[in-house]
């Protein structure tokens, strides 16, 4: 074990008043409390952590009492595994009792708490974690505790399983996906050979993971700026074909998508999204199967379906302001944006036009059709399916006119349609043959 210090001065989030209150509450009985895991790693890298995790040797019931005594909100989010969530606005932190694994089955772990607070108990808690860079801990003064050479691995840009990689993976097969994600975020150069070999050997066990857990990790991988490199590594390791059967990874095409998204974001457009990236891996007709496998929400399923279905919009229509505005109205800004982005992959000459249309779609606001059913009824028509048909006809005319006709113009057009319809009906009544033709039609 090495003991060193975090860079001084400590980051603001570590010295913020809510953090101080939390440490004071947890240490009230004399127990040592430390920052643990990813937040310590991020402090070393100068990053703002997504989550703040603390550890203490005291059992979760005692943690709950300490927080209650300090009038801090405590939520027993995972108390059977020793985890309590503390809320000290605006801070939300997880406090976990030092523990060691008693049994694992590749998805869950049975744990035992180590309440003596000895250095050995801190070390035992550290070595049960996945990667060396995630096993660091630090006191509130910034004193660093490193039991697995995580700091050296972090400095070298190396992601490495703690201990025997095969054993770490067998404890929780989700660690295969986490390896690729962490490699993509923090590593430089080639992957650690032993860790990569353990991931490759575990591909036959990935089917045991729930769709929700695969979804969460896969979407995080797809969101990486270097997602193309990570996916290529997953493809070569046999992991990607297991996660997405039938997936086809075209590295050059995927890299072009990432480049386009980055250019659009840099120009003030939308930030890169994961859904076009996921769609680029899938063959047509696979949206529902993947949505079922990954337990996507209904909105996510529809987004993926739209990405994998052709949109009746060619480049001539994209280049015409009114035609593209009509497409936005008919199909929605999101689907048009996805269509233009994916279509541009095959034609670099269209990049400027694609960027222009993506910016237009990002700022587009759906025009409000100025008529309602009451406007039709006001002309004396009885409630019937004809009302909806009339409104749809007028809306189509209004949209095709570039949404320019105002309410009065739409009402005038409505009166004309009603008048023409009444005249046609009167003519049919005066000519029985015409009435028969009308019924047959």
Biggest β-sheet strands, sense, barrel: 8 strands, mixed
Model regions low in confidence, pLDDT < 50 over at least 5 residues: 432-441
Major β-sheet strand ordering:
1-10-9-2-3-6-5-4
Number of helices: 24
Mean pLDDT: 91
Q: Distance between termini? A: 88 Å
Strand percentage lies at 5-15%
Describe the model:
With 441 residues, this protein is α+β, with helices and mostly antiparallel strands. It is 55% helix and 11% strand. The chain is built from 24 helices and ten strands. It has an eight-stranded mixed sheet. Strand 7 (99-104) and strand 8 form a beta hairpin. Helix 8 packs antiparallel against helix 9, helix 8 (174-186) packs parallel to helix 10 and helix 8 packs across helix 11 (227-236). The radius of gyration is 30 Å and the shape is elongated.
Question: What is the topological layout?
Answer:
Blueprint: E1 2-5, H1 12-15, H2 17-26, E2 34-36, H3 38-45, E3 52-56, H4 60-69, E4 73-78, E5 83-88, E6 91-97, E7 99-104, E8 109-113, H5 119-127, E9 137-138, E10 143-146, H6 150-156, H7 165-171, H8 174-186, H9 193-201, H10 211-222, H11 227-236, H12 239-243, H13 251-266, H14 274-280, H15 287-294, H16 298-308, H17 315-319, H18 321-331, H19 333-344, H20 351-363, H21 373-377, H22 385-400, H23 407-430, H24 432-440
Parallel strand pairs: 3-6
Antiparallel strand pairs: 1-10, 2-3, 2-9, 4-5, 5-6, 7-8, 9-10
Helix pairs in contact: 8-9, 8-10, 8-11, 11-13, 14-16, 18-19, 19-20, 22-23, 23-24
């Amino acid at each position: 074990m090495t003991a060193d210090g975090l860079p001084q001065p400590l980051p603001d989030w570590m010295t913020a008043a809510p953090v101080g209150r939390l440490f004071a509450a947890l240490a009230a009985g004399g127990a040592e409390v430390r920052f643990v895991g990813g937040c310590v790693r991020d402090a070393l890298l100068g990053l703002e952590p997504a989550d703040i995790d603390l550890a203490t040797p005291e059992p979760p019931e005692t943690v709950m009492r300490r927080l209650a005594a300090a009038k801090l909100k405590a939520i027993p989010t995972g108390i059977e595994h020793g985890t309590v969530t503390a809320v000290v606005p605006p801070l939300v932190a997880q406090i976990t009792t030092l523990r060691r694994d008693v049994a694992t089955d590749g998805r869950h772990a049975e744990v035992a708490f180590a309440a003596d607070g000895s250095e050995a108990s801190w070390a035992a808690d550290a070595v049960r974690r996945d990667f060396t860079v995630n096993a660091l801990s630090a006191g509130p003064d910034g004193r660093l505790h490193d039991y697995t050479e995580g700091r050296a691995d972090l400095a070298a840009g190396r992601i490495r399983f703690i201990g025997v990689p095969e054993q770490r993976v067998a404890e929780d097969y989700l660690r295969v996906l986490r390896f690729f994600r962490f490699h993509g975020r923090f590593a430089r150069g080639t992957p650690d050979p032993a860790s990569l070999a353990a991931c490759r050997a575990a591909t036959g066990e990935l089917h045991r993971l729930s769709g929700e857990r695969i979804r969460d990790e896969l979407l995080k991988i797809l969101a990486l700026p270097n997602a193309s490199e990570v996916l290529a590594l997953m493809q070569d390791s046999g992991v990607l074909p297991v996660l997405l059967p039938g997936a086809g990874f075209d590295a050059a095409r995927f890299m072009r998508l990432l480049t386009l998204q980055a250019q659009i974001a840099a120009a003030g457009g939308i930030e890169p999204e994961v859904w076009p990236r996921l769609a680029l891996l899938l063959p047509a007709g696979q949206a529902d199967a993947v949505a079922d496998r990954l337990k996507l929400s209904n909105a996510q399923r529809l987004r993926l379906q739209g990405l994998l279905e052709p949109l009746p919009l060619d480049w001539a229509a994209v280049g015409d302001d009114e035609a593209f505005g009509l497409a936005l109205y008919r199909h929605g800004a999101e689907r048009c944006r996805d269509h233009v982005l994916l279509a541009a992959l095959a034609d670099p000459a269209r990049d400027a036009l694609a960027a222009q249309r993506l910016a237009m779609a990002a700022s587009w606001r759906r025009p409000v059709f100025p008529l309602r059913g009451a406007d039709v009824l006001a002309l004396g028509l009885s409630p019937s399916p004809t009302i909806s048909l009339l409104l749809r006809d007028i809306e189509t005319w209004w949209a095709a006119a570039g949404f320019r006709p105002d309410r009065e113009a739409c009402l005038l057009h409505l009166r004309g349609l009603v008048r023409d319809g009444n005249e046609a009906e009167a003519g049919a009544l005066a000519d029985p043959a015409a009435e028969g033709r009308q019924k047959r039609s």
